[in-house]
Protein 1
Amino acid sequence: MDCVALLEKLVGFPSVVGTPNHAIAGWIADYARAQGAAVHTLPGPEGDRANLFITLGPVEERGYVLSGHMDVVRADEPEWTSNPFALRADGERLYGRGTSDMKGFLAASLALLPKLAGRRLKRPLHLAFSYDEEAGCRGVPHLLAQLPALCQMPLGAIIGEPSGLQPILAHKGKAAARLTVIGRSGHSSRPDLALNAIHGISRVLSTCLSVSAALEEGPFDASFAPACSTLQVGVISGGQAVNIIPAEARIELEVRAIAGQSPRQLLEPVERAAQALTAAGYGVEWQLVSEYPALALPAGSALAGLAREISGQEPLAAVSYGTEAGLYQQAGMEAIICGPGDIARAHKPDEFIARRELAACETMLERLAAQLS
């Protein structure tokens, strides 16, 4: 199968984040085994989802990882002009959910396997395909925890998020949380007999605003836009009617942190404000929904030099969105972002990737393969 045929197959699996992924993972595993690769299917704690770790070459040597996620965001937008889970070709463009983010990179990586099958590799090539990246990189930590039993520590990981094949050296870290405040319902004419959950959670919202304002005062990293860490509340809900005192209110919030700041620690003042509500009789449920660290790869690192060589592009200092790259770096290896497509097309109707972008990614990966022989 060529790269486009592989992409067509992958897009055909509606592997939406947070849902079982055995269909796509099983097909990829069977395909990789047919190319002579060693395949490890690594179930996650959810029981219905799994990561994949695929290797060609000597596992006792240090090689490189091509990392990508199998999940995609939902495709419910009415603006889609074709079935988002059936690849549609229109000249140079290939339309479908996940074409840019990031099944195009998966397809190019899988297309490399038969080209390497007959070679005697001095170093291994690993494909690490994860689940639920779109839910805050939930799947890959389970893969990375098992890495020492699967191979020698890799020399580096290329995370193939859509970057126009421009290597990216850094991104912000993130932590997201969900807070539920529970009071007591009652008629609005007798607030003295009830406990208004919205009023309670408003105290926490005040802390969110204070923390957000403090972060705008620095520290700063000019590589990012904005140059500071940020906090924002993205969801708020609660109440039924104006004459019913609400018994429950909920917010969801996130922090995005520049390198050197811990996303979870930046959330701590908000969590403390939430827990303080218990003294007033409220119930408090605080849940850390997702967390991943920032990526910070030095421009002079070996992996940055390799990425420059195989992509033919100068690395970009930083982006503000997040990826699994920071988790690979935290696990002890160099990591960099470099993949086909455009992040601006991701999570939108009529997502697409261009044929030339896939072809350029195949060329880049073949240059990497030459380093392994």
Note: The chain has a mean pLDDT of 97.
Protein 2
Amino acid sequence: MSEEDRTTLKYLVNGPEEAPVLVLGPSLGATWHMWDRQIPELSHHWRVLRFDLPGHGGAPAHPAASVAELATRLLATLDQLGVERFGYAGCSIGGAIGAELALRHPHRVGSLALVSASPRFGSADSFRQRGVVVRTNGLDPIARAAPERWFTPDFAAAQPAIVDWAVQMVRTTDPGCYIAACEALAAFDVRAELSRIGVPTLVVAGADDQVTPPADARVLVAGIADARLALVPGASHLTPVEQPMAVTDLLVRHFSSSWQSADHPTGMTAIPAPPPKPVISPVQPGAEVVEYGHHVPEPLLDTRSDAYDQGIKVRREVLGDAHVDRAQSLADEFTDDFQDFITRYAWGEVWTRPGIDRRTRSVVTLTALAARGHLDELAFHTRAALRNGLTPTEIKEVLLHTGVYCGVPTANSAFAVAQRIIREETSPEG
């Protein structure tokens, strides 16, 4: 692909030209090399296509705003290659892309594997705060914390070269694309739609994964009609790297036995010859796999009106889940109508208007709250401003400007509040 092409993804192909196509999707912060140890075996059976996320591994830095957009770019890539139907395995955000494909384009996906995946990744707040940290401090603190999130302590201690590889892989990612991917994961939630995934699905979870714990995998298995769970001992989030033999065996067995291709044109043999074989990263052998299933109830659906639904969505995106949950938990018969009022009109009617963007609305809001001395609301709107893309430097300029037109005492109080919030929100993870 060219640097100017914003509609497709950078890809690498291995395996026989006449074989069915199997697509492998990477984790956030990782490149297609996370699948290196799976390629020798998988490419005996399939034409394996790996892709990089925007801004990862030297791919053109054209941020994607949502998981749906990433799925659309992948389909455009496959369309250019003449691939109609394919198998798909994805890790973490790569798994989210797989779920999106199975939900929105079921005729394209023959079989599905979701590795270290979830129908909703953690909390929206955590991913938006990670974006704030990257915007303020760059990717270095995220890169240094990656081994702790990705690997078990024993593996990290035994494999320092892989730890260094992981840190460098994250550190060289484009920050803007990383932030966009965080925003995409913050907005991703398919819990209520899992029953519409109709292809055979393997869900693989690392037993020690703290990012997408086994409980998340069980929700996937409970919601998808034709799904089974494989729990991999001795693995954390980057399961294909930490336990490559176990994951490879699971994928071979799943895609060999569950590919839905009857009565469908495969269109899977049109990919050109592969580039030179990549260098394989050294990884220790895998462990025994224990498989089981567990059922959990489906989530409740919010049945309120569209105006309220849109308002609560925007309110959560701007202020964060923790703040909105706290406000709702404190509401009672006396204040419930007021909570409904501000959600419906402030957030559902005003904050959703297209005339100005959210960054500009944050500038206006900070100025108004500082001018009127509403310091409690200034605190949580400072957090909101950071999530909406303002940097600490830009917030400082807003408050300096406010001091000129609204008075030094006003700005003095506002600076104290904003300083505290900025320190809390921009402290690197870990």
Note: Confidence is low (pLDDT under 50) at residues 261-304.
Protein 3
Amino acid sequence: MTTTSPHPDSPSPAPLSHVPVVVVGAGPAGLTVGNILRAAHLDCVVLEAESREFIEGNPRAGVLEEWAVRGLRQRGLADNLLERAQLHTACEFRFGGEGYRFSYGDLTGRHHFVYPQPLLVTDLVREYVDVRGGDARFSVRDVELHDLGTDRPSVSYTCPRTGQRRLLLCDFVVGADGARGVSRAAVPPEEARTARHDYGVGWLALLAQAPPSADCVLFGIHPDGFAGHMPRGPEVTRYYLQCPPGDDPQNWSHDRVWTALRTRLGAADAPPLAEGALIERRVLDMHDYVVEPMTYGRLFLAGDAAHLVAPIAAKGMNLALHDAFLLGDALLGYLTGGDGDGLDGYSEACLRRVWDYQEFSHWLSEVYHGTSTGDPFRAGTTLARLRRLFTSPAAAGAFAEQYLGTAEHY
């Protein structure tokens, strides 16, 4: 939430301290900004509601685009990633009982990096705290943002060890605490527009203790609903199953899950799926939103606090890093040289890529879900799109450009 300065009659906070930047949220965006600042020996404080152990183990996204990895490498944040990540150069669409491999590596010379988000977060935390000496405070409670519309913002929180309220004076606040965090809620409705889209479908997100059943991502396009297969390591595979929005994961027993996956991902001459225990089951309602602009006063939103793109095209972590690169460099320019151009142009520069990725996600959703709507017109146009992808070099090139995130964003 946002308030004016703490009321004088409220319990006295611990003695005030000043830091140039307070980052709320220790995800990829917040930690990357913190690392950029610490590399220039600028102080900042990262506040995180969860424990360090939790954020280093929370299973999340795992696909990174080349430009994102290049940006991490340029900032000294990609050593483990480059050593351990898998490289993917193809995906496969399965529909009509057949498999159609799309080798975007052969087409473009580009690839994806597969590196689960918990590993990246672990790398970023270690670099920020243990190597660069950054100040990260975990398991904090009741974070509040104050005086964001002034040049003297502050952030207060409850210390988990002492139960004391603490107050940090700062020059800027980075809101990188996700869709349900306090930062997004701190922007007054009259100061920003939130554009929303609901796809009307759910995805059952599954993590299986089983080796991948193919060397690439599989997209199952089936009248029963979409299914996805995403390798996450030699012994773990991420699966998705389309389901009704708001469905209860408990409705999906082990046998029901694997029966649906075999049906929706089935293809002639394809080997059977490697089955295993399901170590995660949760339902995601497919929706998007974009907050415009991504700034309010001295508050700068980044990652899911500013925009949510459904995991349809695996773009979320990439967008968070794009925000972080732009924002970290812009804060650096202002704090070290008084150059405010980067901060002034931050929102506009981010939103060009955000809207491009949202449009692609919207297009791809129709490919994934069109045949399961029961509408013969949408089913027919979905199959037309898929056939075009494998018969038109121009269509294949356009898809590869968007899938890999290689388009320029003017």
Note: The first strand starts at residue 2 and ends at 3.
Protein 4
Amino acid sequence: MANFSKSNVPQFSVEVYQNEYLPEEGREVNAIVTVTATGGGTIGTAVSAPHLYSPGQGPSAAVAIMVDCSGSMDYPPTKMRNARDATAAAIDTLRDGVHFAVIGGTHFAKQVYPGGDRLAVADAATRDQAKQALRKLSAGGGTAIGTWLRLADRLLSSADVAIRHGILLTDGRNEHESAEDLKASLDACAGRFTCDARGVGTDWEVKEVTAIASALLGSADIVADPAGLSADFTQMMETAMGKEVADVALRLWTPVGTTVKFVKQVAPTVEELTGRRTEAGPRAGDYPTGSWGDESRDYHVCVEVPPANIGQEMLAARVSLVIPQPGSGAAQNLGAQGLVRAVWTDDMAASTSINPQVAHYTGQAELAQAIQQGLDLRKSGDMDGATAKLGRAVQLASASGNADTAKLLAKVVDVVDAATGTVRLKAKVEEADEMTLETRSTKTVRVKK
């Protein structure tokens, strides 16, 4: 199996931040788990069970770019031109040897390049051919995003590579298939490739785009001005090209009598993982984290332990990183683990202290929820409820130092007093500002450790 001492493969480390002290009869244990991957960075190498490629051994990645070609992409005509330019910029960012395809999406999916139900391999010639093929992209038809994703999955799965990634651009609502059909497509594609989703303009549905990114463990964002697409696509592709380890799972082992209450990613964005658990042997479960390059992420783990007497202690959970090998029941261990402990004490100061990292990320998760609830209440006409929720969001953003979110909130509400969360809803809000706040509501600021 893969040798993780190789210099071109990231080394994983796990750090656990928690207050392990519980009062008598205390049962809930919270911990922030910081996972860091460092030391990768050799272009052309990727790891995923059962593949380990070294430079020159072949392609490590496959990428499908899905471009909305529905009729609305012609309004204004510059939108389609910007989408073509952005796709060309992404193609230029592909490294040699990466498999790729371009898909045009309407109420059905069509291959723009290379065609023939296959992928091209990036080099100077195929990049040029792909950019020539983009000239055929024209707007007309409806929107059925599930069909785009299924074609991407079919193409990506044809390549014997480690990293499979999609980039999806839409400018409208998914009006030509049911919500159930889209969900079925997402369920079918989950775990098979990751996907970044972007909404361009302001006529698309935020919850659809964020649901795509969430299900496929990618990022979601708004590009309100189509002129910004090329820079965004270039950055997305650069990030995708930096991924070197795929299909990494956070494995949580708990002892008899211990219950997992939740597992969620809390930085760089809030992402609920609890319902995505896959059983991994006695008292162990795997939570998918997607692909990794050189980066660090934080996870909030909450478990409920059996009550115990003062002076007792126990291992409440063990966290490790693995690459599951589907079908075999085995997993490749990435050699990093962290321990979550519980110690019962009658020292009130110790048992009532909240760990700063746990407190910070609990606030960040509440901030994301308050924004989403506040915007939903505003849309439904409940202005008092919206004011209360968005006021709480302003208070949390201010207290945690989340300056980016505070700036976005200030475009939707007039802030009277950030410390107390006293705000007034703005009478007129630009649609792009409201959609940007909603789309980026789950972005968190990291705690200073």
Note: Confidence is low (pLDDT under 50) at residues 1-7, 42-59.
